[in-house]
Amino acid sequence: MIDRCCISVTEKCNLRCKYCHFATAGRRSRDVTKDEIASIVSSIRLYVSSHGTEFKVGIVGGGEPLIRFDMLQFIVEQLETDSRIKMYTISNGVDVDDAKLRFVWEHRNSLDYCISIDGGELLHDSNRIDVAGRGTFSKVMETVQKYEELFGHKPSVNCTVTPQLLAEKEQTIGFFADNGFKKVTFSKLFDSDDKILTGEFDALLKEASGHLEIRQLRKKKSYDCTQYGALCGVGRTNIYYASGLVYPCARFAGMSDYCIGSATDSLESIEANLKRIIPCEDGLCYYDQCFTKGAVQ
Ligand SMILES: C[S@@+](CC[C@H](N)C(=O)[O-])C[C@H]1O[C@@H](n2cnc3c(N)ncnc32)[C@H](O)[C@@H]1O
Ligand code: SF4
């Protein structure tokens, strides 16, 4: 049963992060259209009401979702009427004006707004740069401050784990804890020459859990993505919409051999295609299995 999807609302971005897998893999394609978004939203509503299931929608993808705030707004307003559907977005936190933040606040019961911060200023700015090559830390922290003024607490954070971060593990955990961040998801760098070993990543999570609430260490067994520390949902529970097409996860975006449907298909029909994929064992990544140890499809 599908219980989670990500919708890429734009492939465009206002930043040029050095490790960005969408940019480095050359997979940026056309943007999804408003009509396609309307179809996706209506398929999700139908599926949730006919199966009576809970459903998570990530408004994320190949670029910066807040660049297409109109799309994000439309999705939230259409889906929030069903309390079984919960949404989140991950944003780079740059160019977020007051009106956007106010919308996020007004819809806080159905939408979680998460900001990408890679730790303290030097570490963050070593990778997360704008089109002119300037670090973005100070702009992101301005957004964090505005968020905190509205919500009374810090936003949740997505922090990408690079070898530099592992070398500064204690300082990075200290940065988040000392500045009052509570919910941090560490995501393992992928599609990069720099490899992050599972043992080192797990040690980071363990150490961080003494100071922060780490999403991956929740007791409940969940399938979403091994790069975020949980289990791979490919072939089981997850799908990814990009450029009007559907893929098993974001890493397959743009790969026609792995396309499992389109924005106009019902979720039942996408599910039938998804079931043809043999999921990998718990703990493994389906994409890595395909491209580093031979296809398992
Ligand atoms: C693809 S971005 C989209 C949202 C937005 N543009 C942002 O950066 O927050 C979602 C998350 O993926 C992370 N990410 C990008 N490239 C990555 C890579 N090669 N390995 C692991 N995570 C990566 C980003 O740091 C961000 O936290
Ligand atoms: S802000 Fe997000 S999508 Fe844009 S370059 Fe950075 S990681 Fe990639």
Can you walk through the features of this model?
The protein is α/β, with parallel strands linked by helices and 297 residues long. The chain has one domain: TIM Barrel, CATH 3.20.20.70. Helix content is 35%, strand content 18%. The chain is built from eleven helices and twelve strands. The strands form two sheets. It has a ten-stranded mixed sheet with strand order 7-6-5-4-3-2-1-10-11-12. Helix 2 runs parallel beside helix 3 and helix 4 packs across helix 6. The protein is globular and about 50 Å long. It starts with a strand and ends in a 5-residue tail after the last helix. The protein binds S-adenosylmethionine (SAM) and iron/sulfur cluster.
Entry summary:
With about 300 residues, this protein is α/β, with parallel strands linked by helices. The protein has helices at about 20-25, 35-50, 70-80, 100-105, 120-125, 135-150, 165, 170-180, 200-210, 265-275, 285-290; strands spanning about 5-10, 55-60, 85-90, 110-115, 155-160, 185-190, 215, 225, 230, 240, 245, 260.
What is the strand arrangement across the widest sheet? Answer: 7-6-5-4-3-2-1-10-11-12
Distance between the termini: 18 Å
Number of separate structural domains: 1
Q: Tell me the CATH superfamily.
A: Aldolase class I
